[in-house]
Design brief:
single chain; 244 residues; 2 domains; four-stranded parallel β-sheet; 16% helix; disordered N terminus; binds coenzyme A
Length: 244
Amino acid sequence: MTDDIFPAFDSSQSTNIRTLEAATPTPPNGQPSHTPDPNTIFPIHGLDTLTFIKPSLTNPNIIAGDFSYYSGQDFESRVTHHYPFNGDRLIIGKFCQIGAGVEFVMNGANHQMNSITTYPFFIFDGWNAPTPKPQDLPLKGDTVIGSDVWIGQNVTVLPGVHVGDGAIIGLNSTVTRDIPPYTIVAGNPARIIRKRFDDEMIALLERLKWWDKDIHEIKTLIPILTCPDILRAKHELKIYMGLQ
Ligand SMILES: CC(C)(COP(=O)(O)OP(=O)(O)OC[C@H]1O[C@@H](n2cnc3c(N)ncnc32)[C@H](O)[C@@H]1OP(=O)(O)O)[C@@H](O)C(=O)NCCC(=O)NCCS
């Protein structure tokens, strides 16, 4: 039987990566076909409203992996209250999809709360107020976003949150707590809607970490990664990973 999703091979037979490679066009000179450039700021020809984050960065405390994009310009302006003296970092993995209007609120947003007033006298000229000790501030550490995370538009992510690989955050959500891998959350505060896959599949994907593969290998994996038949994709992944 010919298969629409995996056209290069017979679905009744076991598959391996060589079969998938056969489905990837190779030019006559034997060189791998064209691959996208993760270092270009505008990766879609003629469109300046979607940017790859990594090449647009100037702040050393914001780190992003290849191919993660923001639906807009000036991603750094979406990272707020981010002061070098706090040393907190925003770390984003690879292949993340970040919607317009997202805001990453960093630790500088949180005022001292273990005192009578929360007013930050120390930041203003003239009061001569002591700078609070780090332990007196509610510092939550780095904000860490995994890989292949889809963040809907106008989401707000609070300081110190860790978002697992493959998670989905619904639009307008406020993320206050860590999100496990391959989990869909939404709302204010964001709550779990459901897991995307069964535990076995999630474990496989966390082991595979496809986003860390060589770009040519990722290209050959695209038929599996985009297959809407998850049972079939799981089967093919197990073969590819030598588990079946
Ligand atoms: C989260 C999302 C992906 C939908 O996921 P889904 O699994 O299909 O969710 P459903 O529509 O079946 O909704 C499941 C539940 O979550 C709730 N829900 C879904 N999205 C929500 C959101 N953004 N905020 C609050 N609740 C939400 C639904 O009301 C529903 O609740 P119920 O079970 O009590 O009725 C989608 O709602 C979303 O937010 N997409 C982001 C789109 C975007 O921002 N795109 C910009 C370009 S990147």
